Amino acid sequence: MVKGLRDHGLVTDQRVLEAMERVPRHEFLPPELKEQAYMDSPLPIGMGQTISAPHMVGIMLEALELRLGHRVLEIGAGSGYHPR
Question: For residue 38, what is the DSSP state?
Answer without folding.
Answer: T
